[in-house]
Every structure is written in structure tokens, then in C-alpha cells.
Amino acid sequence: MTLAAKYCHRFSIVLCSLTLFFTLCGLFIVPLGPHYLTNLLVFSSVVGVINYFVGNKTLVGVSARNLYWCVIIYIIAIGISRLVHDDESWLIRNLLYILAFFLLMPREPVLVNAFKLGSLVGGIAIGLLAMWQYHNGMLRVEGFTNAILFAQGALILAILNSFFAQESSTVLTRYSYIVSAMFAISAIYLSQSRGVWLALIVVVTFVLIAKAIKEPIKYLSWFLILSCVLAITFYESDILRTRIHESISEVNMMESNDYTSSWGLRLMAWKSAWTGFIDHPLLGVGLDGVKPMRQQQLLDGIVNDFYVSYEMYHAHNQFMQNMVIRGILGLIAALAILVYPMRFFWRQSKLVSVGFIITLGTFVCALTDVPIEHQNTLYIYLMSLFFICFKNEGRFNDKVAS
């Protein structure tokens, strides 16, 4: 290996390590996190291209072809939607940045350490940021984004740290990851995001049930302990109790045909999106067709004036959003990126694997929000999945070029 190739390879390793670290410890922690991560992805990919041509072409790239195809399907769906009517161009760019990064990333074990360190520090940092904001009077902590997206990022960090704790070889490292996971869960709690609370409960319940099949006494005991903790938290926590009472109140309002609450607006948004999809099943209405569609639905008595005047940005359901904007192609794309990875990781490793659980958690979040339509959640979700594939492949170079 020439001197230029050697240093280019090393520089690529440094940049990719920094990018992976920042994804978990920076994206949700600093203002304009998605902007900085985009720049890191582009810069890393440019250096990666140079490294590919001047160095050894066999030393780079993640071989997760199935995941690449999931992203490509999503890009194609958005591209077709843009050709027919308006759609998000930034989504195509960001997805391409992710593909380029993992196609050109050096296969070095130090990158695994960078990602794990980012997860460890990121979980603690997001918890501390949440506590600081709450202490300074913010009722629903939101980092530098909004409360729902902030909680979704914390959920992925909590899952990553929990699984890294299980595979740690030393007691100190294991408990460090556990502490980091607890900090991330505290951020979810303080965000007061009920959709992410539900996702966390689903994920924990699923893991306990799946593991109880082999060790029933141990994990049923854990289930009872966690159920008691949840019950105690309900009675002791004003936050949890208030949000649950709000949910009950909102359901009662909807039963009285009052849809002015948070969940009432969501239900109206789902009804609007579903009707729009039924009317335009093939290619959807596009972003530019949403407002006229809602106005027509108001005239037809499908939605009410409060919902139309509220001007909700999206359908608060990733599948409904894709269906109304991009039609059947959008639904296929949503299934490819939010459902297929569960099957992929199940077949690649096992049912209770970190990749499967991250996808499951994000899938539940996608039932009440649109995580793929936002840069920060899109980045942390897909980059976590691709990196897990990289780690599972275990095909690392024997040593860094020297």
C-alpha cells in the first residue's frame, strides 16, 4: 500500500468513526444536529470515494444488500412522486448520503468501538439534557427538536445500550451501558410523548415474553417486577398520571364527537389520509395536493373545520402519510423500511436481536407519528440498522493500514 493510500485509509477511518459517534452523541444533543451530521456524511463519503480508488477496494463497504434495497425502494417511491407531483427532495438526498456512507465505510473494528462509545455517552447526554430542560421549567423536554422526535431518538439509544450491556465482557462496562440506558429512558419519560411511552412498553413486553419461552420463571418474575414499578410510578408520578388522565379525557371527547384534542386531531388526520388514499390509490395526492384535498373533504363533511384550520403538517402515521402522499408505492416503501427489517434481522440472527427491536420500536412510533419524514429520526434509525449489519457481519480488516 502506497503512502497516499495508507493515510487516506486512516483519514477515512477517523471521519467515519467521528460520524458514527456523532450520530448517537450529537444528533439530538446539539442545535442543528442533523445539519452537522449531513456534512459529516458527505465529507466522509467524498474521502471514502478517494480511499476506494487509491486503496484496496476490498477493505470497504457493508454487505447488507437487503437493507440497501429497502432504502432504494423508498428513494424510487419518492422519486416517482416528485415526477408526478410535489414531494420531499431532501429525503432522497439524505437517503443517498446514508447509502454512500455505508458503501464506502472502511471495515475496521475501531468503528464498532466508536459507535458503542457514542451510544454510551449519547444515552447519558440525552438524559442529562432532558433533566436540565425540565429543571429549567420546560414541561415537555424536547432537546433541540420537538418532544416526540427527541423521545424517539432516546428510545433507540435505550435499546442500543441495553443490548450492548448484555454482550459486555466486564462488569464496569455492563453497568455503564445500563446507566446510559436508564438516562435515555428518563428522557423518554420527561418528554411526555405517549406514543413513545407505548413503544417502550411494547418493546419491553415483547422481549420479556420472547425470553420467557426459554426461561419462564426468570422473565415472568421480571415482568411482575416491572409491572409493580409501573404501578408505583403511576401513583407517585404526576406526569404519568396526568398524561393517562388526559388520554382518557380525549377518548371521552371523541365519543362525544369532539375532535379538538390531540388524539382527536390524529383520528381526523387518519380519516382524511385514508379517504385521500382511497380517492387516489395509485400515486397519491402529493404534498401540493394535501391542502386542496382537505378543503374538499371539509365540503363533503368528512373532516371538520377545526382540523382543516389547524393545518396539521402530516398525518401522524407514517403509513397513512405515505399512502396519501405517494399512493400504493408509498405504502410499499413504508413496509420496506419499517416492516421488512424485522424479518431481515429475525432471519439473520434471532427474534430478540437489537436490529429487530429497534425496528419494532420505530414501527410502533410510526403508528402515531412520521419518524421517516424527519432528518434526525431518519438518520439515527437507518444508520443504527446499517451499523448493526456491519457489526453482525464481523468481516473486519486484520489491522489498520500501517
Automatic annotation (TrEMBL):
<feature type="transmembrane region" description="Helical">
    <location>
        <begin position="351"/>
        <end position="372"/>
    </location>
</feature>
<keyword id="KW-0436">Ligase</keyword>
<feature type="transmembrane region" description="Helical">
    <location>
        <begin position="319"/>
        <end position="339"/>
    </location>
</feature>
<dbReference type="Pfam" id="PF04932">
    <property type="entry name" value="Wzy_C"/>
</dbReference>
<feature type="transmembrane region" description="Helical">
    <location>
        <begin position="117"/>
        <end position="135"/>
    </location>
</feature>
<dbReference type="InterPro" id="IPR007016">
    <property type="entry name" value="O-antigen_ligase-rel_domated"/>
</dbReference>
<feature type="transmembrane region" description="Helical">
    <location>
        <begin position="219"/>
        <end position="235"/>
    </location>
</feature>
<feature type="transmembrane region" description="Helical">
    <location>
        <begin position="12"/>
        <end position="30"/>
    </location>
</feature>
<feature type="transmembrane region" description="Helical">
    <location>
        <begin position="196"/>
        <end position="212"/>
    </location>
</feature>
<feature type="transmembrane region" description="Helical">
    <location>
        <begin position="147"/>
        <end position="165"/>
    </location>
</feature>
<keyword id="KW-0812">Transmembrane</keyword>
<dbReference type="GO" id="GO:0016020">
    <property type="term" value="C:membrane"/>
</dbReference>
<keyword id="KW-0472">Membrane</keyword>
<feature type="transmembrane region" description="Helical">
    <location>
        <begin position="90"/>
        <end position="105"/>
    </location>
</feature>
<dbReference type="GO" id="GO:0016874">
    <property type="term" value="F:ligase activity"/>
</dbReference>
<dbReference type="InterPro" id="IPR051533">
    <property type="entry name" value="WaaL-like"/>
</dbReference>
<feature type="transmembrane region" description="Helical">
    <location>
        <begin position="66"/>
        <end position="84"/>
    </location>
</feature>
<feature type="transmembrane region" description="Helical">
    <location>
        <begin position="172"/>
        <end position="190"/>
    </location>
</feature>
<feature type="transmembrane region" description="Helical">
    <location>
        <begin position="36"/>
        <end position="54"/>
    </location>
</feature>
<keyword id="KW-1133">Transmembrane helix</keyword>
<feature type="domain" description="O-antigen ligase-related">
    <location>
        <begin position="181"/>
        <end position="334"/>
    </location>
</feature>
<protein>
    <submittedName>
        <fullName>O-antigen ligase family protein</fullName>
    </submittedName>
</protein>
